[in-house]
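Example 3.2
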Amino acid sequence: MIQLYAAVGRYHIEVQPNGKKIPIVTVGINECALTIEEMVLWSSLIWNILTKEELEESYKRKAEQSGVDPNTFENTLQRMEGRNLVASAKAIKGDEALYQLLANLYVVPITSSFSTKVKAFLHLIFCEKVPFSAAKLVFQKESYDQMQQKVIHLSKQTLLSSAEILKCIETGVTDVSTSEKVLDALYDDDFSTCDNLGLFMRFYDHYREILEAVATLYLSRNIVFDKLS
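Structure, written as tokens:
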């Protein structure tokens, strides 16, 4: 069996009146303050899709660098899955595990201003210790292939899961700018719901190509994942 993990949510720093800085990850409408252990694990996963073994290795390496007990991995992971800060899926084959992982996660495109890109660049250089040659790539204009363009176009209009995006692309839907259009495009029968849509979408002809586009956008830091918690 292969088990895959990805980070969920959007990260920001909250500065309290006393000047203390608290890491916050927003999932749905919920703002979740992170402990240092949770921050180490979440930062290991964001814009990565890892097996449990890979995640544990990354966690323990970062934990030692941050003065955190590396043996806290299992408890931290279990707690974060319960808080919807981490998503996981298990299957016999890797592509099936990837589909189950991404199908019900919502796709949130990242639209960065220049100041945001500067902050990201500085974070990569000074916090993540990423080489300058790699960190400067945040200033490059995004270049998407045709399928990635379709994913971004749909996800910019409204909050859609990967499975919902897959159905839109397969059925030729490009306009989901209103809730009525979303319902007409996705739930125009008597059995489809947001909970079971992912069960059927893997049987569509181009599901692997669309799934690859979503995964590539995530790994290349162009989207993040969300849940309706």
